[in-house]
Amino acid sequence: MSSRRSRSGPTLNFKAVLLGEGCVGKTSLVLRYMEDKFNPQHLSTLQASFVTKKVTLPDERRAQLNIWDTAGQERFHALGPIYYRGSDGALLVYDITDHDSFQKVKSWVRELKQMRGTEISLIIVGNKTDLEEQRAIGYADAFHYAQTVGALYLEASAKENEGVAEIFELLTHLMLERLSQRERETEPASPLRLQALDADDAVSVSDGEQSDGTGTGQRSCCGI
Amino acid sequence: MSTAARPPALRLGQQDLKCRASCGYYGTPQNDGLCSKCFRDRNDKQRKMLKAGDMQPILSGSSSHSHSHASVSAGGSSDRRSPQHFQVRETPKKQVDKEPDTSTLQKKKFTAVLQKTLQAGAQKIAQQRGYVPDPTESQFVKQLQKLRIPDDGKRKLKSEIQRLDSEIRKYINSNSSKNIDELSDAVQNTYTKVADIVHNDPRFEIATNEDRESAIDFFEKVVMTQNHKFLFSPYFTTDEESDMKVQKRIRQLSWITSKHLDCSIDEVNAEARDLVYSAISELVGIDSYYSPQEKLQCTVRCCRHIFELLKRATGGPASADDFLPALIFVVLKANPVRLHSNINFVTRFTNASRVMSGEGGYYFTNLCSAIAFIENLNGESLGISKEEFGALMSGQQPFSSPWESALMACESLHLISENMKQMERLQKKNGDISSGIAAFEKELIEFQREVTERVDTVMAKAPLTLLPIKTPAFLIGQARAQLLQELHEGEAGHYQANVLSGAHSLTVHTGMVKASIPAEESGLALKDTSISSIGRLSPLPNLQQPDNLFASPIFNYAAFDAVSLLEEPSSGGSGDVLMLGAELQGGLTNINYDFDLSDQSGENSTAEEAKLNLDEFDPLAQSSAPAPAVEPETSLLDTTMDSLIDSDVPGSCVSLPSPLKPEVANYRGFSNFEIPSISCNTGDFSSLGHDTGPTEGHK
User: Fold this and answer.
1) Which parts of this chain are annotated as the region Disordered (chain B) (predicted)?
2) Which of B296, B316, B324 sits opposite A71 (nearest CB)?
3) Is B192 on the interface with A (CB under 8 A)?
């Protein structure tokens, strides 16, 4: 990362929260993602409640993605706003075998919409696809609901490691897209660069993140 | 533990609220603790006095109200102290306030006088306060110098710091109504601006990104540390009330156990408890730091302890579901002071991105949630009925069930017995050590005695005798040749110098020779032998040791007389130097055994050898023999000590031929010396002797 090129300077920060009722597998998703993405010995260090990864954008700016896990117990529900204050994205996880957890997601979506409006990218994740036979929420239902609230819908299985990495990559992509959107609004003078970013960053970003994240093990559990 | 670590509670006395002029009305901190009327009166009086230029009356008149007068005279700065720091912070703050306000000459003079007394007071108060002292400006300057950014950048950074600093002070000192959010916005904007400068200004061109970040951090740290007293829990906010409220609430909630919170902290496990205590002390420590960064770091440390705890309890990386209850539990048990003030200070005045990202931000957010949870806690959120909650809160119901109390008591007893066992072990170890010490001491004394004894016996058996030197004829011849040559060339001065230095070394070393030979310190002794034997070749009138002198054959030895040298033409005089060296070795073996190198054990023939020496040489030596043996006795003990030490140091024998070393190590003395081994040493002598031989010339 050349220091000369850092025209826009400080590291960009993205923050996403991980919401979901207790026992829907939020933590398992994070763990699974980190396990795949990072060295196992890093994993054993401390915690699975937040993930930080560094990404280099196509224009050589550096960005840091923070994914914050939240406590899912009902009694902590009221604390939600403290976490998603200023967040750019949210992963709403529910258990496809548990109808209540889906209702919970709906209430969170309402809250988030109220608080963050359109500033936040939402991804709804149906976890535990390995328990297909006990499924309580149909894929179509969930998908439709997601569409109505302007969210994306994905299904995954943390246990089988299906679709886990995709969730986080999609989230990264969404947040970066939002950034470029924001920049387009504030900086209409440079549409070229931003278009380029739009066009190919789905691939290039995840590439950059891969080489960056795995190569140097930059999950920052040591220092900000 | 948590209570012990906590500073005393901050209370306001009635008298603190009353006007300081004791008129009976209430005073306000803004008016320097005076009521509005007294404040105005005093200000008027003050102004008049200042106008009159009469400084002395103010000083003397202010004796009863010296503090308040001081601050007013220094520009009427309103005092922003929050009431609970009323007494403590008064003096240092005023001192700070005053500095930018000395506009008139009179004021300057006045403040100069006042500052001295105030500084002394401030120092005293700083000592009394006893927590983290204000990092002085000089420390910051040092840190600034350490930053790896260009000097121009440093200057810019410094000016920005000063600008924000004065901005904050101006805002705080202004009389307009204050809003902490405005101030917070202003500070945040400055942060953004500084970040922009650091990243885009050409003055920072060559700095790396890390250095830029640290420059920004430094900026924040300096400004916040220096203005901590203004920005932390300012009087125009309700931070303090919230502090008191949450503190009281936490106290009421002291009955909460980890079970209520459904978290996996095992309260009866000693290891877990230790970790809880570490987390608690970190949490309590947040208040003792000045800058937001340090407060955040403290939070991070606290949370790491909690994660460590959870990891042990659950056997894997902990999730937020486990973490938040545990954090709440720790906050409840810690009951940190000025919790809200600290949280608000960080939220308002740290770089916004810091609390939105990274580990520190995440933990800080969790801490905020924990506090929010505690404040809104009810029976439902703890899984108990409303009635039970009420009863517990009001203290009607005992904190814990008998079973739990019993469990805790058992655990404590267990801990006590563990500690007792540990103490016993330590005591036993201690006893072992002291008996070991005693034994070792005894051994040492014994060893010393033994050594002394042995040395004594050796000394008695083999007194030091200095025997006359027999100078080989060829040496005389050579010396004479040299002397002749020298006489011709008129270089007497050179030899004179040599002789003088030789004399010096002799006076120094002859004593040592005597002492060190009994001590069997072969290395030194041999070296000295060579030196003193060199010296002995020359007549030395200023010798300090008469015994030695007496023993030395120099005076009666005519061979070295310059005249006789000149008189006797020598056959060996024409020999070249190398040849002489070879011959010298043989010849000198005869010279050197004038030192009695006898064996301590006396089992081999050296004693006889010594005898033989005595017989063979000048009878004069025999008469002088007892003298050296007696003389060193006083210093014998010291000498043995020295030799004990020295013998451990291989370096002392470095210059010696290696065959001698084993003898030293075994304390075998010179018993096993053979004549050829000594002749090795004379190689040294031969080269020197070449020069020293003819020194008689100066006589």
Assistant:
1) 47-104
2) B324
3) no
DSSP states of B655-686: TS-GGGHHHHHTT-TTTT--HHHHHHHHHHHH
C-alpha span between A45 and B295 (Å, rounded):
23
Decide if A86 touches B, using CB distance below 8 A. yes
Q: Using the Cα atoms of residue A105, residue A106, residue A109 and residue A114 in order, give the sign of their dihedral.
A: negative
What b/e sequence results for B272-303 when a residue is b if at least 16 CB atoms lie within 10 Å of its CB, and e otherwise?
A: bbebbbbbbbbbbbbbebbbbbbbbbbbbbbb
- pLDDT, one tens digit per residue, over B471-508 is 778 888 888 888 888 777 654 555 555 555 555 555 44
Round to whole Å and give the CA distance between B553 and B618: 8
Chain B nearest-CA residue for A44: B317
- CA-nearest residue to A45 within chain B is B317
Q: pLDDT tens across B625-676, in order? A: 444 444 444 444 444 444 444 444 444 444 444 444 444 444 544 545 444 4
CB contact under 8 A, A49 and B216: no
pLDDT in tens, A112-135: 888 887 788 899 999 888 888 888
Q: What pLDDT score does B155 carry?
A: 84
Burial state string for B346-378 with b = 16 or more CB within 10 A and e = fewer than 16: bebbbbbbbbbbbbbbbbbbbbbbbbbbbeebe
Report how far residue B334's alpha carbon sits from residue B638's, in angstroms, rounded to the nearest whole number: 64
For B229-245, give the DSSP string.
HHHSS-TTSSHHHHHHH
Please list the alpha-helical segments (H only) found in B10-104. Answer: 14-17, 36-52, 55-61, 66-73, 90-98
Please give the residue of chain B at the shortest CA–CA distance from A85.
B356
What does the pLDDT look like over B660-672, one tens digit per residue? Answer: 444 444 454 454 5
**Contact status of B216 with chain A (Cβ, < 8 Å):** yes
Q: How far is B177 from chain A (nearest CA, A)?
A: 29
- C-beta of residue B340 within 8 angstroms of C-beta of residue A46: no
CA dist list (Å): B505 to B263, B324, B534, B574 = 84, 83, 10, 30
| Helices vs strands, H then E, count in chain A | 7, 6
Q: Shortest Cα distance from B387 to chain A (angstroms)?
A: 18
* Alpha-carbon distance B362 to nearest alpha carbon in chain A (angstroms): 7
Handedness of CA A181, A185, A187, A191 (dihedral sign): positive
| Residue showing tokens 């070991």 | B436
> For a pLDDT cut of 70, what percent of chain A falls above it?
73
Interface of B with A in 316-345 (CB under 8 A): 316-321, 323-325
Q: Are A62 and A14 in contact (CB under 8 A)?
A: no
- For testing the chain A interface, which of B193, B199, B357, B366 should be mutated: the one with the most A CBs within 10 Å? B357
Residue found by looking up tokens 């809200």 in the block: B340
Note whether A83 contacts B356, CB cutoff 8 Å.
no
Interface test with B, best of A18, A75, A218 (most B CBs within 10 A): A75
Give the pLDDT score at B426: 96
> From CA A65, how far away is CA B235, in angstroms rounded?
38
Is there a contact between B461 and B598 (Cβ–Cβ < 8 Å)? yes
Q: How distant is the Cα of B16 from the closest Cα of chain A, in angstroms?
A: 38
Least confident of A163-177, A209-223, B376-390, B617-631: A209-223
Number of neighbouring beta carbons within 10 Å of residue B643: 25
CA angle B340, B229, B45 (to 5 degrees): 125
Query: Chain A partners of B212 at a C-beta cutoff of 8 Å?
Result: 3, 9
